Amino acid sequence: MSDPGKADDLLAQIPASGRRGPPPVHLWNPPFCGAIDMRIARDGSWFYMGTPIGRKALVKLFSGILRRDGDDYFLVTPVEKVGIRVDDAPFVAVSLQVEGSGEAQVLRFVTQVGDDVEAGAEHPLRVALDPHSQEPTPYLHVRANLEALIHRNVFYQLVELAEPRQIDGRSWLGVWSRGTFFPLGPQD
After folding, report:
1. 43 and 102 co-located in one domain
2. 40/92 Cα distance (integer angstroms)
3. Are 79 and 12 in the same domain?
4. Between the N and C ends of the chain, which has fewer C-beta atoms within 10 Å?
5. Per its UniProt record, what InterPro entries does this chain match (predicted)?
6. In the chain, where do the E strands start and end?
7. What averages of pLDDT result for each successive group of 10 residues across the chain (188 residues)?
8. What is the pTM of this model?
């Protein structure tokens, strides 16, 4: 389904709502209608039919109807579900605000689409290591099985905040947010 009007059709199906936050896509179970030529690049840029989507409001709208089922990503409305490609994570955490310190510290991230997420038990941080280079790739849980890749500059801010802690007899560097300690990597 690479018909240029498909994106417009999807937009017309999104219910208007006075409430804040994304629609309840996890409650919608429409039939799968195939894939469209839409892709989210690793840097958080959205593309439709190979062309960047330049309108931030449109990207924000699409990001609100995004759902991940298993390893697959979909745009979901009450009446239609279409597949899209995501290179890594659909969101990128592009800024960080820090309030407090130690166990009382709160880390607040903002994604490229304007989502405001406080790291904590409901929104954990995790760091994946490349098996060959051992380079860390940090992620933040945003909502319902969707993550944000933490931008390199933001990760450097986290590293500056890191403190040591013993976990299972091993020393780790990590950060606190909302009373939860998130290991960033082993302390060598």
Report:
1. no
2. 11
3. yes
4. C
5. DUF1285, DUF1285_beta_roll_sf, DUF1285_C, DUF1285_N
6. 32-40, 46-48, 51-52, 66-69, 72-76, 81-86, 91-99, 106-111, 116-118, 125-129, 136-143, 146-150, 163-167, 170-177, 180-186
7. 55 53 89 97 97 95 96 96 98 98 96 97 95 92 96 97 93 96 90
8. 0.86
